[in-house]
Write a structure and sequence with these properties.
The chain is mainly α. It is built from 19 helices and two strands. It has helices at residues 3-23, 27-43, 46-65, 76-106, 124-137, 145-161, 164-168, 171-186, 195-219, 225-230, 232-235, 237-246, 250-265, 269-273, 276-285, 309-313, 336-340, 359-381, 390-398; strands at residues 291-294, 348-351. Strands 1-2 form a two-stranded antiparallel ribbon. Helix 4 packs across helix 8 (171-186). The longest helix has 31 residues, at 76-106. The mean pLDDT is 89. Bound molecules: iron/sulfur cluster (SF4) (2 copies). Residues 292, 313-314, 316, 318, 320, 326, 331-337 line the site of one iron/sulfur cluster.
C-alpha cells in the first residue's frame, strides 16, 4: 500500500469519527465506531498510523485557522464537490506514482516508489474473477487482490446506496464533467440526443457489462480459474490495460476517440452511455429501498405552482417533478434536485419509506463501505497488496506484447 492510499483510507475513517462525534447521539453510530476503532487498534500497521497522523495533523491545522464546520449543516453540493476534488487529487497522485513505477521498471531501475495497489480497481475482469474464486473456492487472488476488494465493496455499496458512488466518489465522472464544460465553452450549447438515440447510446454500457459478465461468469470454467489467476497474462493485467491506452493502436485509438467524443458532447456522456461499472451499480441499485422521494402534499405543484426546478437541475434528465419515488437506472443520488427545490428537504429527500438520509450521513456510509472496508481487508485479512514479485513484473513488462489469454 502506498502513502496516498493510506491517507485516503484514513481520511474516510476520520470523517466517520467526526460525524459521530458531532452527532453525539444514536447508539448505533457509537457502537459501529467503537468496533471500528477496536479493529483499527488491532490491525493498523505503521503506514496506516502514519496516514492517520497526516490526516489528523491536517484537520488540527484547519481547526487552528477556523473551527471545523458542523458536518450536518453543510450544503450537499459543497460537500459533494469537495469530496470529489479530494478523491480526484488522490487518484491523480496515485496514477502518477504508478506511471513512474512502471517507467522505472521498464528502464531496469529498481523503483523507489511502491506500486499503488488501488490501480487494480480499474480491472473489472480481474476483480470479478478474483471475487468468484474467493467466494466459490476460497482462493484469494495473490496478484490483484485490490481488484477483488474493489468489486466487492462497490457491489455492496450499490446494494445499499444505489449509484451514489458515481456522483460522490468516482474521479472519472468529474473529469468527464470538466471535459464537457470545456466543450460547452468552445462550442456553446447543451446538446441532448433525440430519445431514440439516447436509448441506443445508453444500451452501450449494458452491452459492455454483458461482455464483462460473460468473461467473468462463463468464459473461464471453475476448474480453470486457479490456472487463469496464476497465468502471466493475469499477473500483467494492469500493465496490459495501461498499454492498451498508452500505446495506441487503431482499435484502442478508436475506442478512446469514441469515449472522448461522447464525454465531451453530452452532459454526463461517459457515466450515462459508456461506463460498465455504472451499469452494474444501476442494476444492483434496483434492490435498494433508498430513493429520491417527493412528497406531493408539500411540493409547490400541489399549491398550483408550475414548478419543475428539481427536474431542470437533474444532470440525468429525470422528470423528478412528476414522480413520487425516483426508480431510474440513471439516478446517482447526487442530490442536485433536492438542492434546487425551493422547499428543500420538505418536499424532496433521499431516504427509504420511513427514514431520511442527510447528505453527510450518505457520505459517511460511502466512506464506511468504500474506504474503511478496504482498509480492514488490508489490515485484518491481508487482502490488498499484490504479492507479485518485482522481478516477475519486470520480466512480464518486457514480454507484454506477446502475452495473450
Ligand atoms: S433525480 Fe436527483 S439525485 Fe437522482 S440524478 Fe437526478 S438530481 Fe441527482
Ligand atoms: S423543485 Fe421542489 S417544489 Fe418544485 S416540483 Fe420539484 S419537488 Fe416540487
Amino acid at each position: 500500500m502506498s502513502v496516498i492510499e493510506a491517507v485516503t483510507m484514513a481520511a474516510g475513517l476520520a470523517y466517520l469519527v467526526l460525524l459521530a462525534w458531532q452527532a453525539r447521539s444514536g447508539w448505533q453510530w457509537r457502537l459501529a465506531l467503537g468496533l471500528l476503532l477496536m479493529l483499527w487498534l488491532l490491525t493498523a500497521d505503521s503506514l496506516l498510523w502514519f496516514g492517520l497522523g497526516l490526516v489528523a495533523a491536517g484537520l488540527a491545522l484547519w481547526h487552528h485557522q477556523r473551527p471545523l464546520p458542523a458536518l450536518e449543516a453543510l450544503d450537499s453540493q459543497w460537500l459533494r464537490a469537495r469530496t470529489r476534488q479530494l478523491l480526484l487529487l488522490c487518484w491523480g497522485l496515485v496514477t502518477l506514482q504508478y506511471c513512474l513505477h512502471v517507467w522505472q521498471l521498464g528502464q531496469g531501475i529498481s523503483p523507489w516508489l511502491v506500486r499503488p495497489d488501488v490501480v487494480d480497481g480499474f480491472l473489472p475482469i480481474a476483480g470479478g474473477l478474483g471475487l468468484r474464486a474467493w467466494l466459490g473456492q476460497g482462493l484469494v487472488d495473490p496478484h490483484h487482490p485490490a481488484a477483488t476488494v474493489t468489486v466487492l465493496v462497490l457491489s455492496l455499496s450499490a446494494l445499499l446506496l444505489g449509484r451514489a458512488f458515481c456522483a460522490w466518489f468516482c474521479p472519472l465522472g468529474l473529469v468527464g464533467e470538466w471535459l464537457h464544460g470545456l466543450r460547452s465553452r468552445l462550442l456553446p450549447g447543451e446538446w441532448t440526443p433525440p430519445r431514440w438515440l439516447d436509448v441506443v447510446l445508453r444500451g452501450q454500457k449494458f452491452l459492455v457489462l454483458a461482455f464483462l459478465l460473460f468473461i467473468v461468469l462463463i468464459a473461464v470454467p471453475s476448474a480453470a480459474l486457479p490456472g487463469y489467476l496464476a497465468s502471466p497474462y493475469h499477473q500483467a493485467a494492469d500493465m496490459k490495460m495501461g498499454a492498451f491506452f498508452f500505446n495506441l493502436t487503431l482499435i484502442s485509438g478508436l475506442c478512446l476517440g469514441w469515449v472522448l467524443l461522447l464525454t465531451a458532447t453530452f452532459r454526463q456522456g461517459f457515466c450515462r452511455y459508456l461506463c460498465p461499472y455504472g451499469a452494474w451499480l444501476a442494476l444492483l441499485g434496483l434492490l435498494t429501498p433508498l430513493r429520491i422521494r417527493r412528497d406531493p402534499a408539500r411540493c409547490l405543484r400541489s399549491q398550483g405552482h408550475d414548478c419543475d426546478k428539481c427536474s431542470r437541475a437533474c444532470p440525468s434528465r429525470i422528470q423528478v417533478h412528476q414522480l413520487i419515488a425516483v426508480r431510474s437506472l440513471e439516478c446517482t443520488s447526487c442530490l442536485s434536485c433536492v438542492a434546487a427545490c425551493p422547499k428543500r428537504a420538505d418536499a424532496l429527500h433521499l431516504g427509504t419509506r420511513g427514514r431520511r438520509f442527510s447528505p453527510p450521513r450518505l457520505l459517511g456510509l460511502l466512506c464506511l463501505l468504500l474506504l474503511v472496508l478496504p482498509l480492514l481487508c488490508y489490515g485484518l485479512l491481508g487482502i490488498w497488496v499484490s504479492q507479485t514479485p518485482l522481478e516477475v513484473r519486470a520480466q512480464l513488462l518486457q514480454l507484454l506484447p506477446q502475452l495473450t489469454h
